Structure formats: C-alpha cells, structure tokens
Backbone:
C-alpha cells in the first residue's frame, strides 16, 4: 500500500469546497504512509471534466487508484441532474474500462450548507472517506 500511486483530480468549480475535499483526501493518504512522490494532483475546471482527466490518468497506467473530487450544488435548473449523471457514469466507465479504481468523491448536494456538513461536520469528511476507499480498493486489488 505504501508504494501505491494515487491520482487526485480536483474540480476547481466550488473551489472553497473542493479545496477542503483535497486537503482531507491528501491528508488521509499521507497519514496512511503514502509518500508525496506517490501522489499526483490535477485540477480541472468543473466536475464534468473529471471523467476525462480520470481516463487520461488510467490510460497512462501510472496509478493504482484515481480519486475524483468535486462539488455539484443544485441550482434552479435541470443542469444539476445532467452533470451528476454524466460525472458518475463517466467515472464508472473509466473504472470498468481500465480496471483501475476510480473513487467518486463528488458531493452532490442541494445547498452549500449540505456540502460544508460533509467536510468534517455532521456527515463526516468525504475527502478523507474517498482516500480510505482508494486505499481499501488498492489493498483488495493486490489479492487478485
């Protein structure tokens, strides 16, 4: 696990939230012994670009797990539904196509307050949880 390499892909949209997701995920990985040299951090404009960046990372075959971090907050239009569906489907497709764990660390919430509650509040810290999921999947993959 300590030698595993992780890609963290972060949406810059809703940056206050995604920055904290990244801080939590990166901190958790380091806490578990992952070296800085085994972490690669990439930024994309918004959540919709996460799957393509994940595909690039998977195609490079340099990472044992890919963590996608973003925040999609419901607005007044149907845009929210399209973005959530495309991002979740895209991440799953990359994972199954390239046989590498792609962790969906994307908050899909109604309000900014709900997002903040998932950054160490009453709903835990979703960045840390995404990192833990990535570690667990890497460990599981080593059994096959």
Residues:
């Amino acid at each position: 696990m300590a030698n595993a390499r992780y890609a963290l892909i972060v949406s810059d949209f809703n940056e206050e939230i995604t920055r904290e997701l990244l801080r939590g995920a990166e901190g958790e990985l380091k806490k578990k012994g992952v070296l800085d040299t085994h972490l690669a951090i990439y930024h994309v404009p918004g959540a919709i670009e996460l799957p393509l960046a994940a595909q690039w990372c998977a195609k490079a075959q340099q990472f044992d797990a890919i963590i996608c971090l973003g925040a999609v907050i419901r607005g007044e239009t149907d845009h929210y539904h399209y973005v959530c569906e495309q991002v979740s489907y895209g991440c799953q497709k990359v994972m199954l196509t390239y046989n590498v764990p792609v962790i969906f660390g994307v908050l899909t919430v109604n309000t900014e307050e709900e997002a903040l509650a998932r950054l160490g509040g009453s709903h835990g810290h979703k960045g840390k949880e995404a990192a833990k999921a990535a570690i667990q999947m890497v460990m599981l993959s080593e059994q096959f």
